[in-house]
């Protein structure tokens, strides 16, 4: 397992390292383990499993779960909350890619060929 060869300090700084048990994650979010299971069933987050088969959550997954909790607390059904979060994530990724393309296009138009005209 790669994590076993990674120093503890590096793993703790890794947003994707599954450091939190279901109970601790639920406590941190002020919710129930059932809420976290429902997010897993909706495929919003997929917790990793410990050697004993227990669910383990990363900080990144806890941020997603916290966003879902905000939406559900405002009355959004959990299925709709999960879909909203997925769409928000897709939009953010599309905007990031668009910004990269614009930056590349700007650099290309500012290149040496355009200066010689």
Automatic annotation (TrEMBL):
Pfam families: MerR_1 (PF13411). GO terms for biological process: regulation of DNA-templated transcription. Coiled coil: none annotated. PROSITE patterns: HTH_MERR_2. One of its GO terms (molecular function) is DNA binding. Gene3D superfamilies: 1.10.1660.10. It comes from the Bacteria. InterPro entries: DNA-bd_dom_put_sf, MerR-type_HTH_dom. Residues 19-87 form the HTH merR-type domain. This is MerR family transcriptional regulator. It comes from Streptomyces alkaliterrae. The lineage of its organism: Bacteria, Bacillati, Actinomycetota, Actinomycetes, Kitasatosporales.
């Amino acid at each position: 397992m790669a994590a076993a060869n990674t120093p503890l300090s590096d793993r703790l700084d890794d947003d994707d390292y599954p450091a939190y048990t279901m109970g601790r994650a639920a406590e941190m979010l002020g919710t129930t383990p059932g809420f976290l299971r429902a997010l897993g069933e909706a495929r919003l987050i997929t917790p990793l499993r410990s050697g004993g088969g227990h669910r383990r959550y990363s900080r990144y997954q806890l941020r997603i779960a916290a966003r879902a909790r905000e939406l559900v607390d405002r009355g959004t059904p959990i299925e709709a909350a999960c879909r909203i979060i997925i769409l928000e994530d897709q939009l953010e990724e599309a905007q990031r890619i668009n910004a990269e393309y614009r930056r590349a296009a700007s650099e290309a138009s500012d290149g040496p060929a355009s200066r010689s005209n």
